[in-house]
Amino acid sequence: MSEADEPVEIQPLPLDAWHRERGARMVPFAGYEMPIQYAGPEGGIMAEHLWTRAHAGLFDVSHMGQLMVEGAGAAEALEAVMPGDISALRPGRIRYSLLLAEDGGVLDDLMVTNVTEGEGATPRYYVVVNGATKWDDIAFLREHLPDEITLTHLDDRGLLALQGPDAAAVLDGIVPGAADELSFMQGTSREWRGAPLGIGRGGYTGEDGFELSFPADRLAEVADALLADDRVRPVGLGARDSLRMEAGLPLYGHDIDDTVDPVAGGVAFAISKRRRAEGGFHGADRILGALAEGPASRLVGFSVEGRLPVREGAAIFSGEAQVGRVTSGGFAPSVGAPIAMGHVDTQYSAPGTPLEAEVRGKRVPLTVSEMPFIPHRYHRKGAAK
Amino acid sequence: MTRYFTEDHEWIDVDGNAATVGITDYAQGQLGDIVFVEVPGEGTEVTKGGDAAVVESVKAASDVYSPVTGTVTEGNPALEDDPALVNTAPESDGWFFKLTIADAAELDGLMDEAAYKAFCDTL
C-alpha cells in the first residue's frame, strides 16, 4: 500500500496561512500541506526539536482524524475491533489502542478518550486516528459498528499539540487549572472564548504535554494565545518525527502496518489483560497465539555507531544473514547521534545484540538498544511535578 | 580563479585544471541541518553530472553531483568532524572535494554567479 499511488487532493490545514506567515516550509503529507519546519534562526528541525525538549513546542496536528463514537453499547462495539479494555475506561481517561483488521493485522493505532458526561449519560468515546489512514478507518468503523452506534467525523475541529517541560505552565496561562486537573492520559474540556476546548494530557514526543481540540475556524486564536508566551515556538513535522523516534514510539505505516499483528509490531501492550483472557476481538486467535508462542520478529531500537544516519528500508545483517529491516531512522538531535527502529528476527532482538545495517553498499555497525532513547517525562499521577 | 554554478546547486572554483567543489548557500538552506557528509576519497574518478558525494540532513539523504569529469585529489576532512560546516560556511570552509579537471570544455555549460542567482529566483 502506498499513499503515493493514490491520487490525493491536497487540502490546506485550517492554520495554513498562520504557518506560512511564520515562514513554514509546507510539504504534502497525508493529503494536507503541512509545515515541515519554520524559517529563521529559531527554525529548522534541530532547533525546533531541542526547543521542544527544553521549553514548549506547538504542533499543528489537524490532519489527524477526530471521531466521536456514541450510543448505548459503544464500549462493547469498539471492543469488537480494538483489543483494549474500553469498558473499564472511566470518563476522562485516555487509552492507546489499535484498530484491528479481521485477520489481526493492525489497521491503525489511535487514542480513545471516554468523554461520557456523567452517570447514566449516553456513552461517548472520542477517538483520534492517524491522518493518513483516517478515511479508511472511518469506512472500516462504519462497516463494523452496529447501526445503533453513531460515528461522527469531527471534521470541523482542529487539533494542536503543546509539548515540552514548560507546556503545563503555558497552558495554565490560558486555561487556568486544566493542567492541575489532568495527569498523563487524562482528558477534560473547558469553555474557552465561548467554544468547547477539548484537552488531553499526553503526546508523541516523550515530553509532558497536551492535545487541544477546538473549532477549526477559530483554531488560530488558540495558537496565537499559546505562541504569545515566550516559552512556546511553532514546531514542524520534521522535528515531530525526530522527537517521536527518540521517545521510541512507533509510526503507523512505517514501524507498524496491516502486515503485522500487534505482537510482532511491538504494540502488544495495547492488548488489555481482560481481553487477553477473553479474546473476542478481530484476529484474536492469531494474536493470542503470537502472545503465547512469542513473535517471530520484534520491533526494536538501534543505537548506530558513527554519524552516518541509517534510514527506513536499510537491511539489517548478522554476519551474512539478513535478519531484519529498518522501519524508522535518522539523526536524533537530543541523543546527538543517529538512531533507528526496525523489525528483527526475535533471536537477534535482545538489547546489546551487535548487528550491521547496509547503507549505500557499506556496513554500518549498530546495537539493539533499549527504548526510549530519551527518557519519557510524562506527568504521571503521584509523580513529582 | 573563476567560480561556476550548476542547476543542481553545486559550485566549482576553477584555477587552471585544479578545482574545488561544494554546494551553494541556497542548497544548504533547502536541506536544513546537515548531520553527515560522505565525500569521495583521493583518486576517485567522477563524471560530469554523476554521483560524487552524499549529504545527509536530519530528514533525508541527498546526492551531490560533480559539475565536471575528473579525478578527486582530496575530500574535505573537516566535514567528518563538523558536517554543520556545510550550513555555516557552504561556499568556503564547507567545500566537499577537490579534483583535477579532465576536460575544461565541460565548464562552458555552467552558470556564472549572476546567472545562478537569476536561476534561483525562478525556483
UniProtKB/TrEMBL annotation, chain A:
GO cellular component, one term: glycine cleavage complex
Residues engaged in binding substrate: 211
InterPro entries on file: GcvT (IPR006223), GcvT/YgfZ/DmdA (IPR028896), GcvT/YgfZ_C (IPR029043), GcvT_C (IPR013977), GCVT_N (IPR006222), TrmE/GcvT-like (IPR027266)
Taxonomy, superkingdom: Bacteria
Alphabetic keyword roster: Aminotransferase, Methyltransferase, Transferase
All copies of domain Aminomethyltransferase C-terminal, residue ranges: 298-373
Record flagged with keyword Cell membrane: no
Coiled coil residues, start to end: none
Any GO BP: glycine catabolic process
Catalytic activity: N(6)-[(R)-S(8)-aminomethyldihydrolipoyl]-L-lysyl-[protein] + (6S)-5,6,7,8-tetrahydrofolate = N(6)-[(R)-dihydrolipoyl]-L-lysyl-[protein] + (6R)-5,10-methylene-5,6,7,8-tetrahydrofolate + NH4(+)
Limits of the GCVT N-terminal domain: 16-273
The EC number(s) this enzyme carries: 2.1.2.10
Keyword set includes Transferase: yes
GO MF term list: aminomethyltransferase activity; methyltransferase activity; transaminase activity
Family as reported in the entry's similarity comment: Belongs to the GcvT family.
The protein's name in its UniProt record: aminomethyltransferase
Organism listed in the record: Tsuneonella aeria
Gene that encodes the chain: gcvT
TrEMBL record, chain B:
Cellular compartments per GO CC: cytosol; glycine cleavage complex
Gene3D superfamilies documented for this protein: 2.40.50.100
Coiled coil: none
Residues modified to N6-lipoyllysine: 59
Keyword Ligase in annotation: no
Domain of life: Bacteria
Family to which the UniProt record says this protein belongs: Belongs to the GcvH family.
Assembly information from the UniProt record: The glycine cleavage system is composed of four proteins: P, T, L and H.
Protein name, entry field: Glycine cleavage system H protein
Species for this entry: Tsuneonella aeria
